[in-house]
């Protein structure tokens, strides 16, 4: 059986399951809303622990994150663990790689895990294949492991290959953690003001307890794919300095055995939103249950606002996302498209409910992030954290235009629909 035939059947099967199965999302949300009056009880009963944390620091563009990343690397004394979806050629990428090499030379243990999707993409500006510098990194002596390698001989396990590691997180010395949507590549690290880099986000916290959890997650993933397994005892965990604790954070790591923590997160926000809910999403591809969540929040009286982006990395992403706008408006949401004055993509994934409950991380509002990818999110229930995020959101709105029904109807052609179907498993 040929590869294209297998691929076509796989896509058709996944799309059929998504579009024509009923998950009774609306009634489940009603039951959860009646049971949980606050986010703490909801996430606790869902199996998540709130870890003590410093207030987060947010970085929204490649240059500022690069400088902070270099500071974190320079501060490391024992180890640096990095899990990133994509890597690629860029001056800032190699500044980071060179700093990691310098850290390793002074005795810091450095481990870098990437996803094989790095190899299968083109530059969104030039159309050229993106060079993935794994060979160069290994020549530098850095240890690199690929998550679930995509290889021709594994094509018979096509559904298994849909499992991708979409997370981006860093752990420094078992006490500082960064997570978000930024890869170590051109799109993430370019300057959005000058070079059409993405507007995105990385969030940095001091939280030894969160670092402990994610170190265990990283080591387990590394040891599954690496020839040189890690010993957890080589990555000592730190005691918490209580004087640095200012808030708390839920760390939602989605893996093979966790169930869909992304779905849990979405449920928490949609049942907790009483007045308003903001979603910032580049790759929003609806399913009936995802649309039901929007209807549910609107029916309960919450104003639902969704910010999308133009300047996508590929036409299929934009068409698949824009196809959903009419359904969202008809469900009662207000939809905006961020139109960057410099041609940048708004890649940040963020949820904000009632100016207190905040999520930042890697998860998109689509089926792939719910069920096919490893994802990570930080969730805070803190008005001060929300105020910081709200300032960024207001800046984005200055360059965003609300979509009306007439414009939304223009995104319902056959080309949009076909890309919407294609990107259900591939969004």
Distance between the termini: 26 Å
Sheet having the most strands = 10 strands, mixed
Tally of separate domains: 2
Q: Approximately what portion of the residues adopt beta-strand conformation?
A: 15-25%
List low-pLDDT spans.
Answer: 1-9
Total of DSSP H or I helical runs spanning 4+ residues: 17
* CATH architecture assignment name of the largest domain: 2-Layer Sandwich
CATH topology of the largest domain: Endonuclease, Chain A
Helical fraction equals: 40-55%
Mean pLDDT: 91
Alpha-beta classification: alpha/beta
| Count of strand segments | 17
Within CATH, the superfamily of the largest domain carries the name: Endonuclease Chain A
Mind explaining what this structure looks like?
It is a single chain. With 427 residues, this protein is an alpha/beta fold. The chain folds into two domains: 21-51 and 248-426, Endonuclease Chain A (Endonuclease, Chain A, 2-Layer Sandwich); 54-245, Endonuclease Chain A (Endonuclease, Chain A). It is built from 17 helices and 17 strands. Strands 1, 6, 10, 11, 12, 13, 14, 15, 16 and 17 form a ten-stranded mixed sheet that branches. Helix 12 (315-322) crosses helix 17. Residues 1-9 have low confidence and may be disordered.
């Amino acid at each position: 059986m040929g590869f294209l035939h297998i691929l076509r059947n796989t896509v058709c099967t996944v799309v059929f399951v998504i579009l024509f199965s009923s998950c009774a999302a609306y009634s489940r949300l009603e039951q959860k809303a009646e049971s949980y009056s606050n986010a703490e009880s909801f996430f606790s009963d869902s199996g998540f622990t709130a870890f003590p944390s410093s207030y987060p620091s947010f970085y929204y563009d490649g240059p500022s994150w690069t400088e902070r990343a270099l500071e974190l690397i320079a501060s490391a004394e024992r180890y640096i663990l990095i899990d990133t979806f994509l890597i690629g050629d860029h001056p800032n990428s190699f500044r980071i790689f060179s700093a990691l090499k310098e850290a390793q030379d002074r005795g810091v243990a450095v481990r870098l895990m990437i996803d094989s999707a790095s190899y299968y993409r083109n530059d969104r500006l030039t159309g050229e294949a993106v060079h993935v510098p794994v060979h160069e990194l290994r020549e530098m002596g850095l240890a690199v492991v690929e998550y679930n390698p995509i290889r021709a001989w594994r094509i018979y396990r096509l559904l298994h290959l849909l499992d991708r590691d979409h997370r981006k997180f860093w752990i420094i010395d078992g006490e500082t953690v960064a997570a978000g949507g930024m890869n170590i590549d051109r799109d993430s690290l370019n300057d959005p003001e000058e070079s059409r880099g993405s507007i995105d986000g990385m969030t940095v916290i001091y939280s030894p307890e969160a670092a402990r959890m994610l170190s265990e997650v990283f080591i387990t993933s590394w040891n599954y794919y690496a020839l040189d397994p890690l010993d957890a005892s080589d990555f000592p965990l730190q005691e918490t300095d209580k004087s640095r604790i200012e808030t708390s954070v839920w760390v939602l790591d989605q893996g093979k055995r966790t169930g869909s923590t992304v779905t849990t997160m979405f449920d928490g926000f949609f049942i907790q939103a009483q007045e308003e809910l903001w979603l910032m999403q580049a790759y929003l591809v609806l399913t009936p249950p995802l649309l039901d969540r929007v209807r549910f929040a609107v029916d309960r009286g919450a104003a639902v606002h969704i910010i999308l982006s133009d300047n996508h990395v590929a036409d299929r992403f934009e068409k698949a996302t824009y196809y959903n706008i009419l359904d969202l408006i008809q469900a009662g949401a207000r939809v905006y498209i961020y139109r960057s004055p410099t041609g940048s993509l708004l890649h940040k994934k963020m949820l904000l409910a009632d100016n207190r409950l905040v999520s930042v991380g890697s998860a998109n509002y689509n089926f792939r992030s719910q069920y096919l990818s490893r994802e990570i999110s930080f969730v805070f229930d803190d008005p001060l954290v929300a105020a910081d995020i709200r300032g960024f959101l207001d800046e984005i709105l200055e360059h965003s235009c609300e979509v009306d029904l007439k414009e939304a109807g223009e995104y319902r052609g056959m080309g949009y629909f076909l890309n919407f179907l294609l990107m259900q498993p591939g969004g």
